[in-house]
Specification:
With about 450 residues, the protein is of the alpha+beta class. About 40% of the residues lie in helices and about 20% in strands. Strand 10 and strand 11 form a beta hairpin.
């Protein structure tokens, strides 16, 4: 069993360490041909059903033919909900959920999944903490019992709290302190957001992790790990009537607390001025740069256009940023662009890691110019169709498994507040036009203020 920190560290590491390469600096001849737009692909709707139990638990059932089933519990609690002075707490608690309960021993959840040929994992993001498992279909009932058991009967003592805190601190050392660009990845939200709690990294800090107490952990579970703050998604092979009976039996008796779930209600102000920062690290082999702009939230109607813009700039070896900065100009070893759209607000982040003797400052103008070119110069229909086809294909491939199908539904439910969006998102993606891409970039990049972060070695600063 492993855990994944989706937001904060992992997303930023994908941005820079893997160098999410981006789409044509100068479109090749085949892409410049004015070919007719590809006819949209009709995607069959996902036959999901939704109901809410009296205690507030939301159940989404997604049948899919086969022999396995995925059970996922998505809690509406993430890094933005960390208590003051306790950054990293939601992520720490993700680890705690694999410890003992009233009727399960430590790590027993792993045995219930891995020992029958299945798997389990979890991740923490800015807006959510999600636990997902895949098992043979005939093991659905015990897995539902286990999820209900750790929702209602988790038992945290000082010993397992201390051990899991050390695990998370070691994760911080490996991902943030030891990796050459870890410090930069971890700082994106802190530079990009001004007021919203998103500015605190999901993985937290050593100081805040050390300050956490057992009482903090127990209060956090009581506050957020409750039926009216959870979405239970079951995707795969199951009998719908039997599923309803099992869910009512195992989850229906869990008490709904009287106190409402506390919600973050901090509006993110528009940035009024450009900003420039220099960040240094102890083991930086080559300089790097970030360009950060504000973006709308995930439920914005412009989200599909920003997704396509990300693809045009940074999807694959033939992407614009990769073609320009890496291959043609040879000033960067990697370059990318990411639309990081959260439930409350988002960021657009362009990045590049230098090649050769380039300085971080040398990358700023070429990186910004490629984004500006996409916003202002004509986009060839063939280039646009290619990227939309890549994005569509990736989404359809993911939905072929119970795990991926459930994750698509979960992302729609928690980021957009509408599980049904999973049956409209691919049509919205295919409907994006070149004019849509340029409109959102002109508004959110060319017409907005920018944060520039130069990342250099401490030895050269």
């Amino acid at each position: 069993m492993t855990h994944a920190l989706l937001s904060g560290t992992v997303q930023r590491r994908r941005l820079l360490q893997l160098g999410a390469a981006a789409v044509f600096a100068s479109p090749p001849a085949w892409a410049q041909q004015q070919q007719p737009a590809t006819k949209p692909l009709a995607v069959a709707p996902i036959p999901l059903t939704r109901r809410v139990l009296p205690n507030g638990l939301e159940l989404i059932a997604v049948p899919q033919a086969g022999y396995s089933v995925s059970v996922q519990v998505w809690y509406r609690v993430g890094g933005k909900d960390d208590p003051a002075g306790r950054s990293g707490f939601a992520h720490l608690f993700e680890h705690m959920m694999f410890k003992r309960t009233r009727y399960m021993a430590d790590e027993q959840f792993d045995r219930m999944t891995e020992d029958v040929g299945g798997s389990n994992n979890a991740f923490t993001a800015d807006d959510m903490t999600a636990f997902h498992s895949v098992v043979p279909a005939n093991h659905l009932e015990p897995l539902l019992w286990a999820e209900a058991e750790r929702m209602s009967n988790l038992q945290v003592d000082q010993g397992n709290f201390d051990s899991e805190r050390e695990v998370v601190k070691e994760e911080y050392r490996q991902r943030v302190l030891a990796e050459p660009y870890g410090k930069l990845f971890n700082a994106i939200s802190g530079y990009g957001y001004q007021k919203h709690p998103y500015r605190r990294p999901v993985i937290g800090s050593m100081e805040d992790l050390d300050a956490a107490t057992l009482r903090d952990v127990q209060a956090f579970h009581d506050t957020y790990y409750r039926p009216d703050n959870a979405v239970l998604i079951v995707a795969g092979a199951f009998d719908p009537l039997q599923l309803d009976r099992w869910v009512d039996h195992y989850f229906g008796s869990i008490r709904q607390p009287r106190e409402p779930v506390p919600r973050v209600n901090v509006p993110e102000p528009r940035r009024s001025t450009d900003a420039l920062f220099t960040l240094t690290g102890p083991n930086v082999p080559l300089p790097a740069v970030l360009l950060i702009w504000q973006a709308p939230k995930a439920a914005s109607p412009d989200a599909p256009a920003l997704q396509v813009a990300q693809g045009l700039l940074s999807l694959g070896d033939s992407s614009r940023l990769n073609e320009s900065l890496v291959y043609r100009m040879q000033i960067a070893q990697s370059a990318g662009f990411d639309a990081m759209l959260n439930a409350d607000a988002g960021l657009l982040v362009a990045n590049a890691i230098a090649a050769g003797e380039q300085k971080a400052q040398d990358l700023v103008e070429p990186l910004a110019r490629e984004v500006q070119r996409l916003a202002e110069e004509p986009i060839a229909p063939a280039e646009l169709d290619k990227v939309k086809a890549q994005l569509l294909t990736a989404a359809l491939v993911k939905r072929q498994t119970p795990l991926g199908l459930g994750e698509a539904v979960g992302q729609a439910a928690l980021l957009r507040g509408d599980a049904g969006w999973v049956n409209r998102d691919l049509a919205a993606l295919q409907a994006v036009t070149a004019a849509d891409v340029q409109r959102v970039l002109r508004r959110d990049v060319l017409g907005a203020k920018r944060v520039t972060v130069l990342y250099e070695s401490e030895a050269k600063s």
